[in-house]
């Protein structure tokens, strides 16, 4: 079966933010699942560049529009790469392939009488790219509840599209096709809007020249909402390309609720006028709100730096959090505290800990090899039955554009897996030689359930199968969705490894700025030279040769090592931020330089008595060691 899914095309007037990312991540998860089901998928995203707001933003930056959007578009593409987005195409409305289709459609609609020339006078909101009549304004400003900004009165010669001609035909279609607009609350909202009467749509502008020219009247440019919506078929090569004939109509247009009217009224009427089939479903999801309230948006200035969040937490946790938090038909709430809490509870504790502890038991009780299972009991039968029902639930919820409910079903399986460990108690079975066959069955079930978890996670967190793969002997078990309903797939004797936790716990405070110089990392990025000091000030530093006699990682951190150092018969504890460059083992026995008279500082609850000297070029770090056999406690002069 073919499956065509689209995101909206995004305004490249500034860098993409975390709210923008949700739609693309959700569409990606849906596309990945359909591919795993064997469907022929086409997944489209892109950017909407022919807008007046682009011109104004570029002018403010001192750039021409094309140069400006080129830079922002690259940031969108880079973000999608970092988030493992598997789109098949990326359409830009400044591309020639798009402009040709827009001009062709504009001409056809004009020639058949659906577009006519007149004069327009109305109130225009540039951020929303929308004209409003005076009676729709709220206190003289844009009535969009997410905007409310100043509007300007415009009067110009324009072309108009006869929306009113298709009003009743569209209303009838929506009423006869209840799945066309989802969720139901949005469908009812659009029905009420249409019943209040549709006005003809202004579809050209003459007050600026950035955009696609009307082919037979080049002083006009095509208004953004006629131009932008056509991307869904121009990317497929409408009207004759094989992709258009293969994939249209779209199975899902996934969009934010703020642009629902354009996609469920203007776009269907354009298609009706062209005798083109309508998309099967338009789903308008909610917004992400900040914990303090209000939509997360560039205009509100409350956006998070998506690139920084991915650097801190990785792609999969960001994907999981956003998909789990947006409940169907509702708005989601975002805060970094909530993200870390979800990462630690759901990913580190529930999923990651299950994988780590069960693999550790296979290592301990069966010499790191998957055993041959014995007969199933009711416990195994129950777990296997649940995996089948979860797989079906996930499929249906994703068809309903509800990733949150799909993940909730998967976490029922995760919960049952953890319950299975506690109920079977393999640590007790291992004590009784007569229970060896039963222990083998339990250990095998652990391994095979991890394989199934990799399949379940694949559409939502595509990095999870890649982390699980080497733990289960390197087998490629994660491409076919229906394999989540099949058990006893792993071959007995497969050598497994425990590995590192696939989702280590995170402490948000590790990303906070240091409160004092003593709590700062030992090594910082190359700073400019500090102000000059005299020899007397330098002499206050007491630098000593010390020998590292013990080293270990500090729990719940990736970069700190706790060192025990010997200095002239005295032992000290030093916490050093070098764990990403040295293992504990390779430091033991080295003689290094210690700032011995630094005031003690508490790091992660450990009192650090000094600082180890190291050099760094931002990418590499090397602890300064003493080559000659100087005694510990020797002073560096």
Descriptive overview:
- By secondary structure, the protein is an alpha/beta fold.
- Among the domains are: 335-485, Orthogonal Bundle (Isoleucyl-tRNA Synthetase, Domain 1); 513-636, OB fold (Dihydrolipoamide Acetyltransferase, E2P) (Beta Barrel).
- Helix content is 39%, strand content 18%.
- It has 20 helices and 24 strands.
- Strands 3-2-1-11-12-7 form a six-stranded parallel sheet, sandwiched between helices.
- A hairpin with a 2-residue loop joins strand 19 and strand 20.
- Helix 12 crosses helix 13 and helix 13 (336-366) runs parallel beside helix 15 (403-424).
- The longest helix has 31 residues, at 336-366.
- The protein is globular and about 95 Å long.
Concise account of the structure shown:
This protein is α/β, with parallel strands linked by helices and 637 residues long. Among the domains are: 335-485, Isoleucyl-tRNA Synthetase, Domain 1 (Orthogonal Bundle), CATH 1.10.730.10; 513-636, Nucleic acid-binding proteins (OB fold (Dihydrolipoamide Acetyltransferase, E2P)).
Main structural class: alpha/beta
What is the third-level CATH name, the topology of the domain at 335-485? Isoleucyl-tRNA Synthetase, Domain 1
What number is the mean pLDDT?
88
Shape: globular
- Record field, number of beta strands: 24
By CATH reckoning, the class of the domain at 335-485 would read Mainly Alpha
- Share of β-strand residues: 15-25%
Q: What's the architecture of the domain at 335-485 in CATH terms?
A: Orthogonal Bundle
Note poorly predicted spans: 298-302, 513-527
The CATH superfamily title of the domain at 335-485: Isoleucyl-tRNA Synthetase, Domain 1
Number of helices: 20
Q: What strand order characterises the main sheet?
A: 3-2-1-11-12-7
Main sheet properties = 6 strands, parallel
Radius of gyration: 31 Å
Cα(first) to Cα(last) distance is 77 Å
What portion of residues is helical?
25-40%
């Amino acid at each position: 079966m073919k499956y065509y899914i689209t995101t909206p095309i995004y305004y490249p007037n500034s860098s993409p933010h975390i709210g923008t990312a949700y739609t693309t991540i959700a569409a990606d998860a849906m596309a990945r699942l359909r591919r795993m089901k064997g469907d022929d998928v086409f997944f489209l995203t892109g950017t909407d560049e022919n807008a007046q707001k682009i011109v104004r933003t570029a002018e403010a930056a001192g750039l021409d529009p094309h140069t400006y959007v080129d830079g922002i578009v690259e940031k969108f593409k880079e973000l999608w790469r970092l988030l493992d987005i598997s789109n098949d195409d990326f359409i830009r409305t400044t591309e020639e392939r798009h402009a040709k289709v827009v001009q062709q459609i504009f001409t056809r609609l004009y020639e058949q009488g659906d577009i006519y020339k007149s004069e327009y006078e109305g109130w225009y909101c540039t951020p929303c790219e929308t004209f409003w009549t005076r009676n729709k304004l709220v206190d003289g400003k844009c009535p969009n509840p997410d905007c409310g900004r100043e509007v300007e009165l415009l009067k110009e010669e324009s072309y108009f599209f006869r929306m009113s001609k298709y009003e009743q035909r569209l209303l009838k279609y929506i009423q006869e096709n209840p799945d066309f607009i989802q969720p139901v609350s949005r469908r009812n909202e659009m029905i009420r809007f249409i019943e209040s009467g549709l006005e003809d749509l202004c579809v050209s502008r003459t007050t600026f020249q950035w955009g696609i020219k009307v082919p037979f009247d080049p002083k006009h440019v095509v208004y953004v909402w006629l131009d932008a919506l056509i991307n869904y078929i121009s990317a497929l090569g409408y009207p004759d390309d094989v992709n258009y004939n293969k994939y249209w109509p779209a199975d899902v247009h996934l969009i934010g609720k703020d642009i629902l009217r354009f996609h469920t009224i203007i776009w269907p009427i354009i298609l009706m006028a062209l005798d083109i089939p309508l998309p099967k479903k338009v789903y308008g999801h909610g917004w992400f709100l900040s914990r303090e309230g209000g939509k997360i948006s560039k205009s509100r200035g409350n956006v998070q730096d998506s690139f920084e969040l991915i650097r801190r937490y990785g792609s999969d946790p960001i994907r999981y959090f956003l998909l789990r938090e947006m409940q169907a038909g509702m708005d989601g709430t975002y805060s970094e505290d909530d993200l870390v809490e979800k990462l630690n509870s759901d990913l580190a504790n529930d999923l990651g800990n299950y994988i780590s502890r069960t693999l550790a038991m296979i290592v301990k009780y069966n010499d790191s090899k998957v055993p041959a299972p014995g007969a199933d009991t009711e416990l195994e039968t129950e777990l296997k039955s649940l995996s089948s029902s979860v797989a079906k639930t996930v499929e249906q919820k994703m068809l309903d554009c509800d990733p949150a409910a799909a993940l909730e079903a998967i976490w029922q399986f995760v919960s049952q897996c953890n319950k299975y460990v506690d109920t079977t108690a393999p640590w007790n079975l291992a004590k009784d030689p007569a229970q060896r066959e039963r222990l083998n069955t339990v250990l095998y079930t652990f391994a095979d359930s991890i394989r199934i978890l990799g399949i379940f996670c694949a559409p939502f967190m595509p990095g999870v199968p890649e982390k699980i793969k080497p733990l289960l002997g390197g087998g490629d078990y994660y491409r076919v969705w229906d394999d989540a309903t099949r058990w006893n797939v792993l071959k007995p004797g497969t050598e497994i490894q425990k590995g590192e936790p696939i989702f280590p716990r995170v402490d948000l405070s590790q990303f906070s700025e240091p409160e004092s110089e003593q709590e700062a990392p030992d090594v910082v990025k190359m700073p400019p030279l500090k102000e000059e000091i005299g020899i007397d000030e330098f002499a206050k530093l007491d630098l000593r040769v010390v020998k590292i006699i013990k080293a270990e990682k500090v729990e719940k951190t990736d970069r700190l090592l706790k060192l025990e150092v010997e200095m002239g018969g005295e032992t000290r504890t030093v916490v050093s931020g070098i764990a990403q460059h040295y293992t504990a083992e390779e430091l033991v026995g080295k003689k290094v330089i210690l700032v011995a008279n630094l005031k003690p500082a508490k790091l992660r609850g450990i009192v650090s008595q000094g600082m180890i000297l190291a050099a760094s070029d931002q990418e590499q770090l090397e602890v300064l060691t003493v080559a000659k056999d100087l005694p510990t406690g020797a002073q560096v002069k």
